[in-house]
Specification:
Layout: E1 7-11, H1 15-26, E2 30-34, E3 46-47, E4 54-55, E5 61-62, H2 65-74, E6 78-80, H3 83-87, E7 91-92, E8 96-97, H4 103-118, H5 130-137, H6 140-155, H7 164-168, E9 187-190, H8 194-207, E10 211-213
Parallel strand pairs: 1-2, 2-10
Antiparallel strand pairs: 3-4, 5-9, 6-9, 7-8
Helix pairs in contact: 1-8, 5-6
């Protein structure tokens, strides 16, 4: 790599780490990624099975113009979730449930959301954890039964450990460069499974001289 380029180290080759490396490359950095596992993806892996692929964590993304742009650039074909998959989504608390809130909790959740929108308080506050943001805007039951299992499946961390600003802040910012709408709306996934996202992104990064170091972390 060119010695004149600024250098950056990324710890972990999961979803966030790989995207961070992608954006650093776009800004002209020489990037090294440190990952203990032999392949990227973290908890998100696709296992090929005789009766169909199985996913170890997240099975799709909510599509955006930016996600579509990255997929096109790294050579990924995105497909929509099938009707069967949309009808059979579950959240795991003590057991798999399509909607884990009771009627009273659902009403409270709806009122909390309505009040937050009315008072324009949905945006994260400074130094607020994702858990505190959830309790403030969604209610305690919805935070425990909806937000926590969903976030754990994506980030492998609890809402108490995550910054609300880092996770949600981008949804409340005005985009500097407006991207075109994605070709597919809603939940999408790479045609070959979520693992394909990381394989394609790794190939892209390798062509841009990104170094993958799997033996140890600095």
């Amino acid at each position: 790599s060119s010695p004149s380029r600024p250098k950056a180290k990324v710890i972990g080759a999961g979803f966030s780490g790989m995207l961070e490396a992608y954006f650093l490359v776009k800004k002209g950095y020489s990037v090294s990624i440190f990952e203990r596992a032999s392949e990227p993806g973290g908890l998100i892996q696709t296992h090929k099975q005789p009766k169909g692929d199985t996913e170890t964590a997240a099975n799709g993304f909510i599509n955006t113009g930016l996600l579509q742009k990255i997929a096109d650039e790294i050579g990924i074909e995105l497909v929509s979730a099938s009707r069967i998959a949309r009808k059979n989504r579950f959240l795991w608390n003590s057991r798999p449930e399509k909607w884990p809130l009771t009627l009273i909790e659902t009403l409270g959740f709806g009122l909390k959301i309505a009040l937050a929108k009315l008072t324009q308080s949905l945006a994260p506050q400074a130094l607020e954890t994702l858990h505190d943001w959830g309790v403030r805007n969604l209610g305690r039951a919805a935070t425990q039964k909806l937000l926590s299992p969903g976030i754990l499946g994506i980030y492998a961390s609890t809402p108490e450990e995550l910054s609300a600003t880092l996770i949600l802040g981008r949804f409340f910012e005005q985009p500097k460069n407006k991207l075109p709408k994605p070709r597919l709306r809603g939940t999408v996934a790479p045609k070959g499974g979520m693992g394909e996202w990381f394989s394609a992104l790794k190939r892209y990064l390798l062509t841009h001289e990104v170094e993958f170091i799997t033996s140890a972390c600095p």
